[in-house]
Design a protein that fits this description.
Order of helices and strands: HHEEEEEEEEE
Strand content: 25-35%
Distance between the termini: 126 Å
Number of helices: 2
CATH class of the largest domain: Mainly Beta
Largest sheet: 5 strands, mixed
Helix content: 10-25%
CATH architecture of the largest domain: Sandwich
Strand order of the largest sheet: 2-8-7-4-5
Radius of gyration: 64 Å
Number of strands: 9
CATH superfamily of the largest domain: Immunoglobulins
Shape: elongated
């Protein structure tokens, strides 16, 4: 619209100039038509340029476009396999030994220094497996008093009662109470069952042994089943 107004003004100016030129033909030289057109075009261009600079600058800012909301991927429940608890009980030894009584040399018996004696324990196989030949009855602590490990020569059945005897000698270098602890083990050295002991008092009145003295430990294996009590 602005361009149309400028064009109208320009044409009116041209006609006005032409009229003035006609009336003053005698005073002003005739202008060349091409020159007038060129000047008009230049004037029109200058007006357009000034108008363009006068217009406010319009800046275009990008409109924020909402990004599409991405739905979270569906997660399916993962079922882990259930690990069943083991119902297998840890393996325990089927071997056991239970003390029954002292056959000889009661606790705190007085023995003269250097006196030989035989200690005998009555025990029972109260486990669920028989003791096989090669099992050992050995010292586990204290003073051996000359006693040595005894190896079973035969099998001892479950619930069988046996006498285990070990030949010993009262020490001569000490007085007072002397004790030695003994226990049954497998041929591989795995101890099991009750630990039995011998305890004597060295010095004082001399105790007459109730059994003959032997030079090696012995065991009286009767394999007599222990009576079942309700």
């Amino acid at each position: 619209m602005l361009k149309n107004k400028l064009t109208t003004i320009l044409i009116a100016g041209i006609f006005l100039l032409s009229a003035c030129a006609g009336s003053a033909a005698d005073l002003t030289p005739t202008l060349d038509a091409n020159l007038i057109q060129t000047q008009a075009v230049q004037t029109f261009s200058a007006v357009l340029t000034q108008t363009a600079f006068a217009q406010p600058t319009i800046q275009f800012f990008p409109t924020d476009t909402a990004l599409p909301t991405l739905a979270a991927p569906a997660t399916s429940a993962v079922t882990l396999p259930t690990i069943a608890q083991s119902t297998i009980a840890p393996t325990t030894s089927c071997y056991s030994m239970s003390f029954v009584s002292d056959v000889t040399i009661p606790d705190n018996a007085s023995i003269a220094p250097g006196q030989a004696f035989t200690k005998t324990w009555k025990v029972t196989n109260n486990g669920s497996c028989p003791w096989t030949a090669g099992f050992k009855f050995a010292l586990t602590g204290g003073d051996a008093m000359g006693g040595v490990t005894y190896t079973l020569p035969a099998t001892v059945a479950v619930n069988a009662i046996v006498d285990l005897s070990v030949a010993m000698t009262a020490p001569t270098t000490k007085t007072g109470k002397v004790q030695g602890n003994w226990r049954m083990s497998t041929a591989g050295g795995q101890f099991f069952g009750n630990e039995v002991y011998v305890i004597i008092t060295v010095g004082g009145a001399t105790l007459t042994p109730t059994q003959s003295i032997t030079s090696t430990p012995t065991a009286t294996i009767t394999n007599t089943p222990k009576p079942a009590y309700p």
